[in-house]
Structure formats: structure tokens, C-alpha cells
From TrEMBL:
GO cellular component: plasma membrane
Domain of life: Bacteria
Disordered: annotated span: 264-288
Keyword Transport applies: yes
Entry keyword annotation includes Ubl conjugation: no
GO terms for MF: ATP binding; ATP hydrolysis activity
Name of a matching Pfam family: BCA_ABC_TP_C
Keywords: ATP-binding, Nucleotide-binding, Transport
Database matches in InterPro entries: AAA+_ATPase, ABC_AA/LPS_Transport, ABC_transporter-like_ATP-bd, ABC_transporter-like_CS, BCA_ABC_TP_C, P-loop_NTPase
Name of the protein in question: Branched-chain amino acid transport system ATP-binding protein
ABC transporter domain boundaries: 18-266
Amino acid sequence: MSEAVEVDGQIRADLPPLEVEHVSVRFGAIKALSDVSFAVAPGAIHAVIGPNGAGKSTMFNVLSGVYKAAEGQVRFGDARLDRMRPYQIADVGVARAFQNIALSGAQSVAENLMLGRHHLTRAGFLSAGLRLPRATREGRRHGERVAEIAEFLDLGDKLHTPVGVLSYGDQKRVEVARALCTEPRLLLLDEPVAGMNAEETERMADAIREIRSALGISIILVEHDMGMVMSLADRVTVLDFGRLIADGTPAEVQTDPEVIRAYLGSGNETDPSLVAADAPTDPPESRP
Ligand SMILES: Nc1ncnc2c1ncn2[C@@H]1O[C@H](COP(=O)(O)OP(=O)(O)OP(=O)(O)O)[C@@H](O)[C@H]1O
């Protein structure tokens, strides 16, 4: 069972836990995930960590419907995510922001964010094209919400700027804003600070905290930056070679002998036991 979390602000009333039960995924002879179970409490910031090749991306791809689990279930309230296609998963309120920015560089921030509203648009393309009153009203409403979300992520003054000319940190925040534009109840963040410098990382961590407290939604992140994970997450699931080796609070997993062994044995430089909760973040990595 998922444990309740304490949140600054209100958790959305219609927010179920996410329950991953006995999930396995195979690629030929490779078991990318073996019998993995964990739960994400409503309103939690929940991190999935592990050394390279541990199965983190595979887990995210299962949660977002890109990969099908060979065994096991993923439940989000009544919805069986493991039986759904990606667009159906988006429809039940699960949105993913991608690690490698998947934005249209020539289009403005507003245009990119509007794409996130697409599945919420009722007026069909024809009435929108003909500028019928209902479509115009709806377009205005979506435009206002897009502006609000951009403001929330400190992008308010960049709404009409082409995404391609923004800094890397700004582009990553547009990616998160676009996911938020789908009005999710569960936000999946795929390495949200990969390649960021310390200042950009701190800004993104603040934005994630604000998203949770202002919107009261659940957030799952896969992240390599251990300092950020330990200071941000309520709970941490640790994978290694496709198996779950620990699941607990940051303080619990940091001192778990199996976690320490997995990190030291993997050649990963960041040993979670050595990172204090308020430690400064890693130096910037090379950018994609
Ligand atoms: N599409 C695929 N085809 C074959 N093998 C795959 C595929 N995707 C992942 N794998 C394998 O599954 C295992 C888990 O990989 P995964 O990418 O999920 O790990 P990860 O924890 O995200 O690693 P990293 O931190 O390096 O991104 C690895 O052995 C990987 O080589």
C-alpha cells in the first residue's frame, strides 16, 4: 500500500494512488524489469533511481504505455494502465515530459503549449477553422490557461518567443509546461534536470515543488542527480538490474546497504549514501 504524504497545500480530491504490481518486461533474453512492485501515494513526489541499465526508462515506458509489460499490472484508480495505449493513458490524466526535448523549435512557446491542450479541445477542427463562436470562446479559454501555466513556470514573458532560441533550461521548463497543459493528475518527469547547470537545476526543483503544492498532483521522476532526488522526493524506489532493491524515504534508501553496494559496484560516481539531503547539485553534464 502507498503511504500518505504531507503536502503544502491541498491534494486533488480525485487523485488515486498509482500501483505497480509484479511488473516484468523482457527484451529477448534480457529481463529489463523482474517482478517490480511499488506504489505512489496521492500527491507524492516519488523518485525512481538506479545505476545505468537498472530499468528506469523501461518502467517509465510501461507507465506511459510505450512498452507492454509481459506480466503484472499498473493501476491508477480504476484504470488499468498496462492495458491502455498512450493516448488513453493521457486521457485518464497521466502526462509525461520527455528527457530529450521533443518541442517544435520554430514554433512559439504558446504554440507548443497549445499542442498540449489538443485532447481537451471540444470544438472540432472544422468549427475552429471557420472561427465559429464556440470555437473562438474555447480557444480563448485555452489561451488563458496556457498563459497561466507559462507564468507558473517563469515563462510568461517568453510566450511568443520561438522555442528554438530559448536557453536549454527554459526549453526543459517548456517541456514540463506542455505536459501540465494536459491537466494531468499524475506527471511523469524523465530526467528533468539532465544536462542542467546548478542554477537551472535549483530552479527546476523549485518549479516541481510548486507544481505539487499548487496543483496537488502526484509526480514521478526518473533522475540521475542524486542531490536533487534526495532533497525533493518524499519516497524513492531503487532498481538494479531490473529488480527492486529498496523502496522508502530518501533517508532510508541512502543508508540501505544493498543500494550502496549497487551504486559502488556499478561504477556510477554518485553514491546515494554520500549525498546529504541539502547537498549542492552535481556539476553540469555535457548537453545533448
Ligand atoms: N528496446 C530495447 N531493446 C532491447 N533491450 C532494451 C531495450 N530497452 C532497454 N533495454 C535493456 O533493458 C535494460 C534496462 O534498460 P533501461 O534503459 O530501462 O535502464 P535505465 O535504468 O533507464 O538506464 P540509464 O540510466 O542508462 O538510462 C538494459 O539492459 C537495456 O539494455
